[in-house]
């Protein structure tokens, strides 16, 4: 017998298992159907989900208007946020999508033979039921799809076979456009399915499948408003994001999870190889399916372990892959079937028992409650919509930006960095940059796309700014070129609920130079002096990987690169830096930690300059994964600064609460806070602020103190914190005239706790003088818990 051929199964085998497949399909449909979540607010994940729904409604083009890890059908994610415009479409689509998933699971289940094997699958699905959601469900469906095609090929009725294959074809095409991770799997099912049908001598079905899957994908692409000519750009930009994902988004987890999943990988690899060795009558079929399952599990491994260690994603997918294998090897060696059966049971148990939150009764109770809630929603769609609208109204109330809406009107507006839900819930005319969430612009090309958007003719008139870096990244390194483009072309017009509204006032078109002016070669851990600069300093980083590091990045993830900086003190500030993004350049200095410091610098408030920088990794052994030497490039950049006098009084009160005038110079860690319900400026020792009032004689009133939590935190007492020294001087050059000095030690003195008040009746300011407020360490020079704040500084002019 030819080894690449297998006999057509007997008619009895074609029909057996249909009832079991129907049972499994119905259970999957009932248990996994979900109808989305509530309206997006400031949450990062909810925000991107809302943007994808918005893009679907607006007909935005993927690959040019929108660049993201999810595709144009990403709005079909079962856990998508509520978007009123497409409520009915989403509601119906989820039912249809889950029906397709149920059919696929059912077909794969009906390939199993024997009561024992079928009982195993039921047990596995029951045990894994809390895990069958989101990526596990959708990736698992694509893994089972090859078994579904195999089972459909055995159906006797041509019409029934065509219907089943059509359902699976449309489902695979749909999932391939939901998320780019799914696209290669959908492509694999398409190719392997064609060969399986051809091997079964289902020529018409094979041709129909070969043409039907891409035809379904094309129809879905067009139905979602996408241009055919835009598909190559979608593939290229998605590949760009995928290739840089492991170094940008890598985050470690528990070693135990990696060990369990590595053991599972070795186990299933051994079983798949055993299948290849034993299935001599149909080796080509085995080779195709084994190759597909291996590729699918590699993608599942990356999906599980790049961002963090998520064994609860990987182990269920391995279990589902073993179920596929059990369907294909039903006529082979009993030992192989028994080994696969035992493995799938162990994996299912490990997926729930070994990995938090664990197989507790509450886990399954919650799953049952979610199923009941979903089906109540299915039966009462009007109530569901009313509840979602009420929730949306609550989010709108909490994030209401009436002043912003009044200023912007119907003009276009974007938002940096990742709280896009705020724009959408306020019903502003959203106009996003291509990589619409800043953390995702993690390669030079992606950063250039966003920079070009803000420097080009299609730039929006307004931008909302809220700097929220993820994973403790250096704040101005996320979408760094876009932030610089905003600085060059936009200026502040309003601040509301912590969101800074910028308006386009210039038309600078030239991009930041792609290479630095000068470079310094250095080793890891070596401090590098930042060249002196009067305005801004950009930094480029040229750092490669070792061969071992490249292999690790492919198989797992790239280790986090850490950057440490010092300002004008010895305090070291540590951040994460994305290697690829840093090579494109970003603002290193001044040290801007949030949108408020960004705006303060924009209006002449000199923020602390970065003096030194060095690079390292979280663990010493990770250094071997990177090149031994690195090149750091520096480029001084003059950026326009506006006079503080242009700030409206209301905005000045937000930037500098309780202050009559804006500071002209600062040093140390200073940022807005709320203390005892009052706005204030946090000042950690050692920090200073200089002010330049007009010459004259003043009555000065100030309120200050140490943060209330300081004296009750156990760690502060253990560190023998000694409080702060609050001081006000009149300064001229190197000369300083003391006006006020007060030591506060709330750890030993009760009256030093809470808000302190002082009034100076005759402060004389001469030409060239400045007023300096200083928060210094306490009497013993201990910097621990030196959490001072300035709540008020008022200057009342007095007669000469």
From TrEMBL:
Residues spanning the membrane: 20-37, 82-108, 162-183, 203-223, 259-276, 282-301, 313-330, 336-355
Coiled-coil residues: none
Superkingdom classification of source: Bacteria
Keywords carried by this UniProt record: Membrane, Transmembrane, Transmembrane helix
Protein name per Swiss-Prot or TrEMBL: Uncharacterized protein
């Amino acid at each position: 017998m030819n080894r690449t051929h297998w006999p057509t199964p007997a008619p009895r085998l074609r029909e057996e298992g249909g009832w079991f497949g129907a049972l499994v399909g119905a259970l999957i449909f009932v248990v996994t159907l979900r109808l989305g979540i509530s309206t997006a607010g400031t949450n990062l994940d909810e925000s991107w989900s809302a943007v994808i729904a918005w893009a679907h409604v607006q007909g935005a083009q993927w690959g040019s208007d929108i660049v993201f890890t999810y595709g144009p059908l990403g709005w079909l994610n079962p856990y998508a946020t509520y978007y009123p415009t497409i409520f009915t479409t989403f509601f119906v689509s989820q039912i249809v999508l889950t029906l397709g998933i149920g059919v696929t699971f059912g077909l794969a289940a009906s390939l199993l033979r024997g009561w024992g094997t079928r009982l195993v699958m039921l047990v596995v699905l029951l045990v894994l039921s809390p895990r069958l959601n989101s990526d596990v469900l959708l990736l698992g469906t694509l893994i089972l799809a090859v078994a579904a095609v195999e089972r459909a090929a055995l159906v006797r009725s041509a019409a029934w076979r065509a219907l089943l294959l059509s359902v699976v074809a449309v489902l695979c095409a749909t999932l391939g456009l939901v998320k780019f991770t799914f696209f290669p799997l959908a492509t694999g099912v398409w190719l392997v399915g064609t060969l399986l049908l051809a091997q079964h001598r289902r020529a018409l079905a094979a041709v129909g499948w070969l043409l039907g899957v891409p035809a379904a994908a094309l129809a879905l692409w067009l139905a979602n408003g996408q241009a055919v000519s835009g598909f190559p750009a979608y593939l290229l930009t998605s590949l760009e994001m995928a290739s840089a994902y492991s170094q940008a988004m890598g985050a470690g987890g528990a070693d135990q999870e990696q060990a369990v999943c590595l053991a599972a990988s070795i186990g299933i690899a051994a079983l798949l190889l055993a299948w290849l060795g034993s299935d001599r009558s149909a080796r080509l079929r085995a080779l195709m399916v084994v190759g597909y399952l291996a590729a699918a599990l590699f993608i599942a491994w990356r999906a599980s372990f790049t961002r963090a260690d998520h064994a609860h994603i990987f182990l269920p997918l391995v279990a589902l892959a073993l179920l596929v294998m059990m369907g294909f090897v039903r006529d082979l060696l009993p030992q192989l079937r028994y080994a696969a059966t035992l493995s799938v049971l162990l994996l299912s148990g490990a997926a729930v028992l070994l990995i938090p939150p664990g197989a507790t009764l509450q886990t399954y109770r919650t799953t049952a409650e979610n199923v009941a809630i979903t089906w109540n929603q299915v039966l009462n769609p009007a109530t569901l919509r009313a509840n979602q609208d009420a929730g949306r109204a609550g989010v709108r109330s909490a994030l209401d930006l009436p002043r912003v809406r009044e200023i912007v009107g119907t003009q276009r507006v974007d938002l940096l960095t990742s709280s896009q839900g705020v724009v959408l819930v306020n019903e502003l005319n959203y106009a996003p940059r291509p990589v619409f969430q800043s953390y995702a612009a993690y390669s030079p090309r992606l950063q250039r796309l966003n920079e070009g958007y803000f420097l080009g003719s299609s730039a929006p008139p307004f931008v909302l700014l809220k700097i929220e870096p993820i994973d403790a990244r250096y704040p101005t390194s996320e979408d760094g070129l876009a932030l610089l483009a905003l600085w060059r072309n936009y200026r502040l017009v309003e601040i509301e609920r912590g969101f800074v509204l910028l308006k386009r006032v210039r038309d600078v078109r030239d991009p930041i130079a792609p290479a630095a002016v000068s470079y310094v070669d250095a080793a890891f851990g070596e401090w590098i002096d930042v060249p002196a600069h009067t305005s801004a300093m950009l930094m480029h980083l040229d750092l490669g990987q070792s061969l071992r590091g490249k292999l690790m990045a492919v198989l797992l993830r790239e280790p986090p690169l850490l950057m440490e900086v010092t300002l004008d003190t010895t305090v070291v500030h540590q951040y994460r830096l994305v290697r690829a993004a840093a090579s494109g350049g970003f603002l290193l200095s001044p040290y801007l930690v949030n949108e408020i410091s960004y705006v303060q610098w924009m209006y002449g408030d000199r923020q602390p300059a970065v003096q030194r920088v060095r690079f390292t990794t979280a663990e010493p052994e990770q250094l071997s994964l990177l090149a031994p030497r690195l090149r750091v490039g520096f480029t001084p950049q003059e950026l326009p600064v506006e006079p503080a006098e242009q700030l409206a009084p209301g905005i000045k009160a937000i930037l500098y609460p309780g202050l009559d005038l804006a500071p002209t110079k600062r040093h140390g860690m200073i940022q807005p806070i709320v203390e005892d319900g009052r706005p204030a400026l946090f000042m950690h020792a050692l920090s200073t602020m200089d002010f330049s009032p007009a010459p004259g004689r003043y009555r000065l009133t100030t309120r200050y103190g140490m943060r209330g939590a300081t004296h009750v935190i156990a760690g502060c007492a253990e560190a023998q914190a000694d409080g702060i020294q609050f001081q006000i001087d009149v300064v001229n050059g190197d000369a300083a005239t003391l006006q006020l000095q007060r030591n506060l030690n709330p750890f030993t003195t009760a009256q030093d706790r809470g808000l302190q008040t002082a009034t100076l009746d005759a402060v004389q300011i001469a030409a060239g003088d400045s007023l300096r407020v200083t928060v210094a360490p306490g009497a013993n020079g201990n910097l621990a818990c030196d959490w001072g704040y300035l709540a008020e500084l008022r200057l009342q002019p007095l007669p000469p």
